[in-house]
């Protein structure tokens, strides 16, 4: 049996199973586990069984790849494994180390006893995939932890330290020594005790009673909480319903209710979207043309050029990772402000109780402010975070080329500019890469890693490894104006401005797309980011002939000094101490005056049309980006929008959303939008890839290129 190693030690059968990397309960492993358990039950030399992961991990759960096909339901099902364990006449001990998550924890709970290493993590993360535990987790865990404890585990979905459960029936013995030796010794103790008293039945979680005197109040509180926090997600309420069944019904009836609740969730759009994200996060780490064994350069120190909001935020990421970080500015006053911005981040963390003062001071001690390029020459990585102007970038990179040691990585945080052109300012373009952080850089998870034409493989590999070290979600992009995220958002914002011309107000447009699920609409987002940022990008694009029409209203807004929240006025008005967006009479007059000057007839635009125009502008441009190989895969685009632009998570990203609608229908709606004579000429020409996939019945995430 290739996945299960069978041995007998001191009268105990040890079933050491493995299916790298995380021992997922695939169909192949389920077959071999049942065979090994039945062999041990029949083996006269074995009085008890120990189940242990052979590679330092117990089991991270079901094989998620099987969720979308028939593999999950192929017999023997995971429930068949549980049934064999339940029916074992010999005591079965789960020896848990590493992780026992999802189906792995359910497997452990189906054993009679659990010996757990103190460093292990336990959890039922199914809620993060839009489903509930489906192999008895909702029925056994309340019997072992109680209703409140079980709900906390399942609704959080987090892997939790085993030490939290040391005094509960979930763990029979917590050990810090060799797990295999400890589990065999525990099993031998159980055998000896049973020989002394054979009348006592084997303890099964299924036979325990759920005792909760305040059951109804607890369940109602839980329902109220999840309705407020997770209104778009059906799984949390289903978990509560399943736990209610565990408390009220016999075990088998509760299992039937768990199955009834589980099956529609598995087929739901929300679960499909969340499973898509699960795989997207893993796929993004695989970079085309980058062998898995590509060497990675050591990064022991980092330098940030610029102490503005972005530079300070970038610095915090590396300080949090324990990496000494230089901050370079051109003047002492600017440098002091930059250091102050970093300090303010840590003061805020201390004030909120997220960090103690000693840790904040230790991180600040890693920050090395300087006014001299000579001080940063020995850094392994330097990130430029200066004004978004090619002339300014050129000056910085020529200086870096002359200053930095051989082998140092030279990175630009540009959000739109040509990374290849920036690399050409140096004599070492192979060492240049784009690291586009999103603001606030110490909070936002997304990092666009921009691969230049001459970026060396080890530089790219180092950037990806470093992203993981600073806890960012890295997505590789090719070089183009705006890369993946901002190139698409330019089309999205162009449609927002077009609808403003046609009769919609900023608040109507924002409300419509926020109703769809975006964290904030285009006008509130622009105010938060700073309207002057997009203004300067547009001025460059006008000069380069990349924009056919001027965004007159948006330009005049900035020229009036309405840069957004930071200036107290933008598309909305803001009041001191109040970050809420208030409709602005000034903006209403500006828009009305410009419509009148242009002789524009207005109309009421339905919210459904607003949503279509905004979302499909993203999808259509995403298809072009995909076909041009700026993005490696459609799921990378989805990840960019989920982690950087507030696209609703339960919809899975713009490309996944388009797939769920159906590309034939998406193309049909785009052609309908193209019939609007008032819209930007040529804007709604379907991208060739979208048109082809729609005609073929294909999908972006089912093989887009």
Could you characterize what this model shows?
The protein has 705 residues and is α/β, with parallel strands linked by helices. The protein folds into 3 domains: 4-266, 2-enoyl-CoA Hydratase, Chain A, domain 1, CATH 3.90.226.10; 302-477, NAD(P)-binding Rossmann-like Domain (Rossmann fold, 3-Layer(aba) Sandwich), CATH 3.40.50; 485-696, N-(1-d-carboxylethyl)-l-norvaline Dehydrogenase, domain 2 (Orthogonal Bundle). The chain is 47% helix and 12% strand. The protein has 27 helices and 19 strands. An 8-stranded mixed sheet has the order 12-11-10-13-14-15-16-17, sandwiched between helices. Helix 11 (309-320) links the parallel strand 10 (302-305) and strand 11 (325-328). Helix 1 runs parallel beside helix 2, helix 8 (235-248) packs antiparallel against helix 9 and helix 10 crosses helix 24. The longest helix has 21 residues, at 607-627. The model has no long low-confidence stretch (mean pLDDT 94).
Our estimate of the beta-strand percent is 5-15%
| Secondary-structure class | alpha/beta
Proportion of residues in helical segments: 40-55%
- Looking at CATH, the homologous superfamily of the largest domain is 2-enoyl-CoA Hydratase, Chain A, domain 1
Number of structural domains: 3
CATH topology of the largest domain, by name, is 2-enoyl-CoA Hydratase, Chain A, domain 1
Largest sheet, in brief, is:
8 strands, mixed
Distance between the termini: 39 Å
What's the shape? globular
Total strands: 19
CATH architecture of the largest domain: Alpha-Beta Complex
CA-atom Rg in angstroms: 29 Å
Low-confidence stretches: none
CATH class of the largest domain: Alpha Beta
What's the total helix number? 27
Q: Widest sheet: strand order?
A: 12-11-10-13-14-15-16-17
Mean pLDDT: 94
């Amino acid at each position: 049996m290739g996945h299960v190693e069978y041995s007998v030690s001191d009268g105990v059968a040890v079933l050491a199973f493995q299916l790298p990397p995380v021992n997922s309960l695939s169909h192949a492993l389920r077959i071999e586990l049942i065979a090994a358990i039945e062999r041990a039950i029949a083996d006269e030399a074995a009085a008890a069984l120990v189940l242990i992961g052979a590679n330092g991990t117990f089991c991270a759960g079901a094989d998620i790849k099987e969720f979308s096909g028939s593999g999950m339901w192929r017999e023997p099902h995971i429930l068949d494994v549980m049934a064999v364990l339940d029916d074992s006449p010999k005591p079965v001990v789960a020896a848990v180390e590493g992780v026992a998550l999802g189906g792995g924890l359910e497997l452990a709970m189906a054993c009679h006893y659990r010996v757990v290493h103190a460093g292990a993590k336990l959890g039922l993360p199914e809620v993060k995939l839009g489903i509930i535990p489906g192999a008895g987790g909702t029925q056994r865990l309340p019997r072992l932890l109680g209703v409140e404890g079980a709900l906390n585990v399942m609704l959080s979905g987090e892997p939790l330290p085993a030490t939290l459960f040391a005094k509960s029936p979930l763990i029979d013995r917590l050990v810090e020594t060799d797990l295999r030796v400890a589990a065999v010794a525990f099993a031998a103790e159980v055998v000896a005790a049973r020989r002394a008293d054979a009348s006592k039945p084997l303890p099964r979680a299924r036979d325990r009673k759920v005792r909760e005197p305040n059951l109804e109040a607890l369940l109602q509180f839980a329902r109220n909480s999840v309705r407020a926090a997770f209104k778009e997600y059906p799984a949390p309420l289903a978990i509560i319903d399943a736990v209610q069944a565990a408390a009220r019904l016999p075990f088998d009836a509760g299992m039937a209710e768990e199955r009834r609740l589980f099956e529609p969730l598995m087929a739901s759009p929300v679960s499909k979207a969340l499973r898509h994200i699960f795989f997207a996060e893993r796929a993004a780490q695989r970079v085309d043309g980058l062998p898995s064994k590509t060497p990675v350069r050591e990064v022991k120190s980092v330098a940030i050029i610029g102490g503005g909001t972005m530079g300070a935020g970038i610095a915090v990421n590396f300080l949090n990772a324990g990496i000494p970080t230089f901050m370079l500015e051109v003047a002492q006053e600017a440098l002091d402000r930059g250091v102050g911005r970093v300090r303010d981040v840590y003061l805020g963390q201390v004030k909120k109780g997220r960090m103690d003062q000693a840790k904040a001071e230790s991180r600040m001690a890693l920050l090395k402010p300087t006014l001299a390029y000579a001080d940063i020459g020995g850094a392994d990585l330097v990130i430029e975070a200066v004004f978004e102007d090619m002339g300014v970038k050129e000056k910085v990179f020529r200086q870096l080329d002359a200053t930095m040691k051989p082998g140092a990585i030279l990175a630009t945080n540009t959000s739109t500019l040509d990374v290849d052109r920036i690399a050409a300012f140096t004599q070492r373009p192979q060492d240049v890469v784009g690291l586009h952080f999103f603001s606030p850089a110490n909070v936002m998870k997304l990092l666009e890693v921009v691969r230049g034409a001459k970026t060396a493989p080890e530089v790219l590999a180092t950037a990806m490894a470093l992203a993981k070290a600073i806890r960012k979600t890295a997505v590789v992009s090719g070089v183009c104006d705006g890369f993946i995220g901002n190139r698409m958002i330019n089309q999205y914002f162009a449609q927002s401005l077009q609808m403003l011309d046609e009769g919609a107000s900023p608040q109507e447009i924002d409300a419509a797309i926020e109703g769809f699920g975006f964290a904030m609409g285009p006008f509130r987002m622009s105010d938060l980011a700073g309207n002057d940022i997009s203004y300067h990008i547009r001025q460059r694009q006008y000069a380069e002939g990349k924009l056919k029409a001027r965004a007159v209203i948006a330009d005049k807004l900035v020229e009036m000094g309405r840069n957004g929240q930071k200036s107290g006025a933008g598309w909305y008005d803001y009041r001191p101490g109040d970050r809420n967006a208030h409709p602005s009479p000034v903006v209403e007059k500006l828009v009305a005056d410009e419509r009148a000057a242009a002789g524009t007839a207005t109309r009421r635009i339905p919210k459904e049309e607003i949503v279509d125009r905004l979302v499909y502008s993203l999808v259509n441009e995403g298809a072009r980006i995909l076909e041009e190989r700026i993005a490696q895969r459609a799921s990378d685009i989805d990840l960019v929008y989920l982690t950087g632009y507030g696209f609703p998570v339960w919809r899975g990203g713009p490309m996944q959303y388009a797939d769920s609608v159906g590309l034939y229908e998406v193309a049909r709606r785009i052609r309908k939008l193209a019939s609007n004579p008032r819209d930007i000429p040529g804007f709604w020409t379907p991208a060739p890839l979208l048109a082809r996939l729609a005609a073929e019945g294909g999908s972006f995430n089912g093989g887009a290129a």
